[in-house]
Amino acid sequence: MESCVMAIVDTFRFSDAEYEGRLARLRRAMDAAGIDTLITSDPSNMAWITGYDGWSFYVHQAVIVRAFGAPVWFGREQDAQGALRTVYMADPDIIAYPDIYVQSPDRHPMDYLAARLTDRGWHKGRIGVEMDNYWFSARGYQALCAGLPQPPVDATGLVNWQRGVKSDAELDRMRKAARLVERMHARIADRIEPGMRKCDLVAEIYDAALRYDPDLGFGGDYPAIVPLLPSGTDAAAPHLTWDDRPMRRGEGTFFEIAGCFRRYHCPLSRTIFLGRPTQAFLDAEKAVLEGMDRGLEAARAGNTCEDIAIAFFDVLKKHGIRKDNRTGYPIGLSYPPDWGERTCSLRPGDRTVLKPGMTFHFMTGLWLEDMGFEITESIVIRDGAPECLADVPRRLIVKD
Amino acid sequence: MESCVMAIVDTFRFSDAEYEGRLARLRRAMDAAGIDTLITSDPSNMAWITGYDGWSFYVHQAVIVRAFGAPVWFGREQDAQGALRTVYMADPDIIAYPDIYVQSPDRHPMDYLAARLTDRGWHKGRIGVEMDNYWFSARGYQALCAGLPQPPVDATGLVNWQRGVKSDAELDRMRKAARLVERMHARIADRIEPGMRKCDLVAEIYDAALRYDPDLGFGGDYPAIVPLLPSGTDAAAPHLTWDDRPMRRGEGTFFEIAGCFRRYHCPLSRTIFLGRPTQAFLDAEKAVLEGMDRGLEAARAGNTCEDIAIAFFDVLKKHGIRKDNRTGYPIGLSYPPDWGERTCSLRPGDRTVLKPGMTFHFMTGLWLEDMGFEITESIVIRDGAPECLADVPRRLIVKD
């Protein structure tokens, strides 16, 4: 298999030392949580631990980590080929289940896994699973309970928390993703005009997200979320995608998009008004930009997540704007449906201490009664002022 | 909210009669399963029942159906705005949880839902949940168990099975998706050449998938799976996505892609060889095309899923090719991570009876030791020969 393995990995993998460092970090966390065997089903966690990459997360799969030995890849037989081609481990240990376990009412892949763990004597001790994760189901949990001597314990977020502080190699990927999102926003600003159909604008966004740039020396990967770009009163709803109708003069549209380089993301939102912006948009711009400045001042190592949120919310309050939702989340390596890391949140009450190398999407979006407004930044925490990953003019863009 | 509601729905919704027919069908199935209250978290099921559309499935949400009354939308407070704009129900009944429930270690959205069900007196009777679905977690199950008088029962696939036979309005959307996938394959065949970077080809694929076509009168939506297009020996792995390196002469690449029109899919795969194809590719083409013909002959109302699979596998066997995985699945309305419906499968042992209006991706892909080969069709079951949704030349495409 050696020649196959070479075909992909040289562009996708990190160094062995990087993976070994991650594994050591994870094992310390497992030890602290009293977990002997960790079954992690989140594709972002699987990739972070092993380098595994592929759109196979629609069937059950996992990476298994114990105190000693290399991580084990578990998944569908046909996807073992993808594991061989993408994981960093030499001669990887793979547990592959036959296709009859796929979407079968009679048997579950976790039945198979419980049996293989038992074969290896790994069924003893505390086994951790991600109880609140898209990729590990309630039925999978029941199958493991039935097939193991004792129920697994909840290890939701255990790996995710280890991913918080980024290595230099990870930051390098995020900076490359930032170049892509800069290009995407420049393209939008250049091409948008009244009458342009929204699906055509999305085609432009993908084009700018993906194409190889000889000056940059790379092209783009798919982001974990498709472009969100609701217009007018629909922009009060944060998660609408697009349709094929023409964009209209007199409406604002926010663009919540991310550049993605080898699964690492740089999300960034901007808002464009076609025509003369209403006072509400100008007021929102003023409040958000001022709040953004205060939030960025609070975004430094030693402060906490809530410090950023409170600094931002205080400015909004002064401007008479109420925001009922968190104002950011950690980012980095991700697969659909979310480019967030699902650990801490920028919101009052979250006292997670900020450390150098943590990365956040400072999500200062406003979804008001009849409009939406987003000007956001993705940042790297440092001892001093944070690094803003991308350089996109931080203002309401007006195009007439 | 009336003006907001109008903004989206006219392009996305089906008729009220269509939704009411679906609800009646679902209620018969609930009654047969002895389920009083169904909590369905799958976004495809939520959309099928209510029309709800949005990229909000990365947080917990559901549609609740009981024997009487309109369906209830449950989700995050900020996404209620999206529900108001997309569901078919007039004056919709919405249960929205505050943002502090989002990705919190201390509280779970299903705690909130259990309390609201109890408020309404809906906590009694048998409550069905989707135990083996990406969008309902093991922790959500535990939260409902803790908050309700008795544990919910498993209703995985209950809604999905109702979606199997498509209405004329649904088939119309799938035929539109077929026009898009035809355009996508035509674009690939036109643009691909040795030296072209794969990410640039993906940009072309998205362009053809999305842009408004004045002749067709519509543009495209995002498919539930990103383009899969591994080359050379990497094509032995079915679920690799892309990188930014040049494509090479002397390699075959399969393109597993789908057109998508308002969340309805038409998947279709083709394989392209750059240069002179090896005998292995020519052999695979011969076997797959012959097997496809036999399979299509078996694909008619009254036969079963396994009839199609056995017809196809018999031809492969004759050609000395072994395929260890299912050869198709039902398709239609879908959200990531999968454009399949996750009910029946085209494989030996699946005796699901084929009915007119069922739609399948006849997935005749081969992932062999050092190559991959995919020529597939999406079909509509009829009393006679099936309708092939798309018209793309059914052969190995060779480009020198």
Structure explained in plain terms:
2 copies of one chain form a homodimer. Chain A is of the alpha/beta class and 400 residues long. Chain A has 2 domains: 16-162, Creatinase/prolidase N-terminal domain (Creatine Amidinohydrolase, Chain A, domain 1); 168-399, Creatinase/methionine aminopeptidase superfamily (Creatine Amidinohydrolase). Chain A has 11 helices and 15 strands. Chain A has helices at 2-12, 16-33, 43-50, 80-86, 109-119, 138-147, 158-162, 168-191, 198-210, 279-298, 305-318, and strands spanning 37-40, 62-66, 72-76, 93-97, 127-129, 153-154, 251-261, 264-274, 328-330, 359-362, 366-367, 372-373, 377-380, 387-388, 397-399. A 6-stranded mixed β-sheet of chain A has the order 4-3-2-1-5-6, sandwiched between helices. Chain A has a 4-stranded antiparallel β-sheet with strand order 9-10-13-14, with no helix packed on it. In chain A, helix 6 (138-147) links the parallel strand 5 (127-129) and strand 6. In chain A, helix 5 (109-119) packs parallel to helix 6 (138-147), helix 8 runs antiparallel to helix 9 (198-210) and helix 10 packs antiparallel against helix 11 (305-318). The termini of chain A are far apart. In chain A, 58% of the residues are buried. The model of chain A is unreliable at 1-10 (pLDDT under 50). At the A-B interface, helix 1, helix 4, helix 6 and helix 9 of A face helix 1, helix 4, helix 6 and helix 9 of B.
